[in-house]
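Components:
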Amino acid sequence: MEDNIFLKIIRKEVPKDFIYEDDEILAFYDIHPLAPVHVLIIPKKPIINIATMEDEDAVLVGKMFLIARNIARDLNISEKGYKLLIRVGRDGGQEVPHLHLHLIGGVRLGDNIRPE
Ligand code: 5GP
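Structure:
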């Protein structure tokens, strides 16, 4: 797998404040937030995207959603709601080839998040 910015973040080669970390998952604020709350939740395992994940990664991916839920609670956006987004591949608009779950909220969101 080719190197990318998220792999560098996982290796702690770029300074980054983490909202959450355990042995499998990291969460941090997006550098170009699309809303008042914009957090990225990523696995430490090098998985490119949902299209290439293995069946055995299902529990890990499920855990990413539980962590997103917990962060949303901690940031007090659970009640009003938020958007969870995973882009897959070129047509899905995925820019970084490492699986990441966007947690976006803190404002009433329309249908289009970063349209073409
Ligand atoms: P994608 O378009 O692949 O779904 O989302 C990639 C996201 O990663 C974008 O929202 C972009 O702003 C974010 N991003 C890219 N490089 C960095 C970085 O170095 N640090 C952080 N925190 N976010 C980044």
